[in-house]
Amino acid sequence: MIAAKQHLPYPYDQDLSGIVTRVKGKRAATRAALPNELKVASYLRAGVILIERNLGPQDALAEPDLSVHRPYRSGIRFLTERAVVGEVERIEPPFLRLKGDGAYRATWATHDDYIDDLLDFLFHPINYDAQYGAAMETRGDDLASADTFVEASDHVAFYELQAICRMSLFRLQLMMAATARREDGIHQAIASNYNAALEPWKKIYESTIAARGFRLCEGVTLDQFADMLAAAIEGFAVRQLGDPDAGILGDAPTTTSTPGMLVLAILNSYLEPANGPRRPVLRERFAAIERAARSGEKATEQ
Fold first, then answer.
1. Residue 13 and residue 36: Cα distance in Å, rounded?
2. pLDDT category of residue 60 using cuts at 50, 70 and 90
3. How far is residue 285 from each of residues 269, 270, 288, 291, 300, measured CA to CA in Å?
């Protein structure tokens, strides 16, 4: 039986007409239909396989391709046309196995067009959900269901950091963000990826804060709160990937883990009991502590 697009796993079975936009065809109808053809999904899958193989937790050494000329491509030299075509020749069903480069060259005018479509596909929200969504829901449930908020924050910080460090998409994002030029269009793709990541978390934070009897302090928005937590975990992920022996990510959540301590500091700084009086904004609170420290007076707890 010949596979059809609906037999493909998510997200390859989705409508890609607004994502894959660089395929070629003499007629507008051909160009409109191509993004949802099985061969396009197969070539996208081949590119994803190569990225996961080369940027996954057990990074493989890739042979450099000196023909790659775009500045932001320096880190993805393993995504050569020959490598993609070779991957499709041995790709597993239900994807379409194709011999030679004829179908590839009939679909994209240049290898650059294929790479741009592949990156747009990878950074699209449908791909983020596929790699990460279910695990995020589990960790989000922990925030509201754990015995204490302190315990929940320790667990979520640990498992969130662990998940991000395993994601080839996160490693690719770091590489693209560091090397892309503003006009390359990569920044917009990464921005879409962040939106896909943060929107569900903001809903979880909002419901968890209310369920735990807290509210955000004056001077901080939900968007800022989510950005701070994301930046903290991503920063630790960069350190963990670059220096695995630093002890950033242990074997299990602990009360003394550095990521957990920072997450707790953010919670302590920007959350307050919903049934209590409003506290001064954090800058004012810390300024008062600083003045007391300088004068030698006893600081008043706000």
1. 8
2. very low
3. 10, 11, 5, 10, 9
Long-range contacts (CB closer than 8 Å, 24 or more residues apart) made by 218-226: 218/278, 218/279, 218/280, 218/281, 219/281, 219/282, 219/283, 220/270, 220/282, 225/266, 225/270, 226/198, 226/201, 226/202
Tokens matching residue 268: 């302590």
Structure-token match 């239909």, residue found: 33
Instruction: Specify the residue for token string 């050569």.
Output: 80
pTM of the model: 0.73
- Whole-angstrom distance, CA of residue 34 vs CA of residue 135: 33
Look up the CATH number of domain 125-295: 1.10.357
Please report, for residues 52, 119, 197, the alpha-carbon distance to residue 175 in angstroms, rounded to integers and kept in the order given.
Answer: 14, 12, 18
CA–CA distances in Å: residue 246 to residues 258, 260, 289: 11, 15, 32
Across-strand partners of 214?
273
State the Cα–Cα distance between residues 233 and 250, nearest whole angstrom: 14
State pLDDT tens for residues 267-279: 999 999 999 999 9
Question: Position 22: which residue type?
Answer: R
Contact of 70 with 112, CB cutoff 8 Å: yes
Quick one: CA dihedral 39, 40, 45, 51, positive or negative?
A: positive
Q: Are 138 and 229 in contact (CB under 8 A)?
A: no
Give the CA distances from residue 203 to residues 4, 57, 82, 130, 141, in Å, rounded to whole numbers and listed in that order: 36, 30, 43, 19, 12
One-letter identity of residue 111: H
Could you state, in order of their start, the residue ranges of all structural domains in the chain?
Answer: 5-115, 125-295
